[in-house]
Amino acid sequence: MISRDAAATRQRILEHARRQFARHGYTTVTVKGVADAAGVSPNLITRYFGGKDGLFLAAARVEIPVADSIHGDRAGLGARLAASIVQRWLGAHGEDPLLVLQRASGERPEAAEALAAFLDTNSLEPLHRYLRDSGLADAEARDRAAAIDAFVLGVSTRRRILRAELGDPAALEAWLGATIQRLADGLG
After folding, report:
1. What SUPFAM superfamilies would the database entry show (predicted)?
2. Distance, CA of 27 to CA of 134 (rounded, Å)
3. Which of 1, 10, 19, 53 has its CA 20 to 30 A from that of 168?
C-alpha cells in the first residue's frame, strides 16, 4: 500500500503552480497543466485549492522579511537592500511568489491588489518608518520611501517581467545599491 502525504502533495502542487504562474502569468496556466507537472489528478487541485483562482492565490502568497534588510546605519541602506534584492532575484528564479504577483497584476485585479498591499506593508511602510526614525521629517521620509519602492518595482518589472537579463549580479547589486542610497539620501 502506498502511503499518502497530503501536505507534501499540496506543497508539490504549489511549487509547480508558482513556477508556471511566474513564467506564464495567470491566463495561460491551466489546472490540468499544473496537475500534470505535479503528477497529480486535477481533482486534487480542486480539493486542496478550490480551483484555479484558489491555486493562484495560494501560489502567490508572499512572505518576505524585507524589514530585516533595513536595520543598521542609513549610510549602508542602499547596499543592504540591494544585496537582499539581488539575492532574491537570483535565488527564487522561476518560483518567486512576488514574481507571480507582478506578472499576474496586469491580468487579475486581485493580483494587483495583493501586490500593492504586499508592497505597502512590507516595503513602503518599513522604509518610511526607518527613514523617519533615522531623523527625517515624516513627509520627507514617506517621499523617499516611495521613490525607493517605485524604483525597485520598476527595475524588477523591467528585468524580471519583461524578461530582460539581470546581467552581472555584482554590477547589478552595485548599481542598485548606489541608486537606492541616493534616493534614501535625497540626492536622486
Report:
1. Homeodomain-like, Tetracyclin repressor-like, C-terminal domain
2. 44
3. 19
CB 123 within 8 A of CB 66: yes
Q: Which residues of the chain have pLDDT under 70?
A: 1-3, 62-67, 92-96, 163-164, 188
In a domain, 1, yes or no: no
**Residue where the block lists cell 506578472:** 103
Range of the domain at 45: 6-59
In this structure, the chain runs to a length of: 188
Check which CATH number belongs to the domain holding 17 and give it.
1.10.10.60
Number of structural domains found in the chain = 2
The whole-model pTM stands at 0.72
Residues 115 and 93 in one domain: yes
